[in-house]
Design goal:
With 437 residues, the protein is α+β, with helices and mostly antiparallel strands. The chain is built from nine helices and eleven strands. The strands form three sheets. It has a five-stranded mixed β-sheet.
Amino acid sequence: MRLLPRRLLSRIMLLIAILLAVSIYASLKIFDYFDREPRATAAALQAVTIVNYTRASLIASHENRRLALLSELSGREGVRVYAADFLEDIEALPSDPFINLMAQKIRDKLGEETIITVNHYDIPGLWISFNVGQDDFWVVIPKIQVDRPFPWHWLGWAAVVGLLSLVGGYLLTARINRPLTMLVHAAERLRNGEPAPKLPEDSVEELREVTHTFNEMAESLARLDAERTLLLAGVSHDIRTPLARLRLAVEMLPQEADYMKHGMIEDISDMDNIIHQFLDFVRGVEGEPTRMMDINDLLRALSDRQLRAGRELKISLGPKYFIPIRPLAMQRLLDNLVGNAYNYGKGKVEVRSQVMADKIVVSVLDNGPGIPQEHAERLLRPFERMDSARNKYEGGSGLGLAICNRISKLHGGQLYLLNRPEGGLEARLSLPILPNT
């Protein structure tokens, strides 16, 4: 989800680059099309002038002086004059639009019978025929005077325009991407059960309404959560006082009622545990700071507490590795998972930790009946229970696993409930490894 804005930015920049390349190519083609007519007219006028000048010079000269004059004319400005034999093979003009347009304009001036070719006899240039009396001649205009040089300067300007456009497009997409990124991060915080920060509403016009609506939604959710917290905390607190009086009254019952006292005290303890879970759920753990610590230390302390309670908890610890942890919250998570394993299992519980390439995995294993796998995700939601599948223990409020799931997400991790192949349930906690600083 966090990568979405970056992908969007990359796609927008790629689209802008493609559109710029297409537009620059189209601009050059359009420029070449509209520039072709005046260039062809100017080149044709130059060629016609040279032909008329050469022809007039030959007509004005004496026949005996024509060969000398041809030699003299051929040396001026690279223009050459050759005697022509039109029985020779003459190649057609190439399919260049500019050359064909220029040739047509030359024929319009000199006559349709004028023969025009290029690179005749492998001599580069534009060859134009003319006659003086019964004699036929070629005027060869060097190629450099006919062709336009490659417009490198236009490519340079196009590159500058393209670069400036890309910079402008990047700034524009970055301005759009910034509120999108903030919106994605805020939505992710809401998904993880954390309060979302108020987003600035001074973004682009198209996203301003979305940001405003998201802020209103986040405020409404915060108010709803605060009201729910206040309600549950108030009810739980008010119920605990009469429960304490009720337990005291039960303890003071005469000895003849011992067969009733034990069951009533267990019921009161179950109710007190349910209220405790209510308070844990509404209290939250978001305000606790993180510490770099090894989760194996918490597992050892958990084993010691279970041993003092008369339970033997088997632990298998992986290598030491420090990650950011909220100690009290993580302790509550582990206590809940192990408590569930003892309540629903057959008294044999094992906890394992292992360090993998990108995460630390803590598994709480029991040998109970397990759960239907299709209900595993539902059991991580508040007030969900599955006593029909694991029916040994009927107490609880359905908040224990929800609290564990909230704490795991608060650490950037994930909680899974998996049936073991050999029987029983595995509660697997996956915590990401962050670089130590």
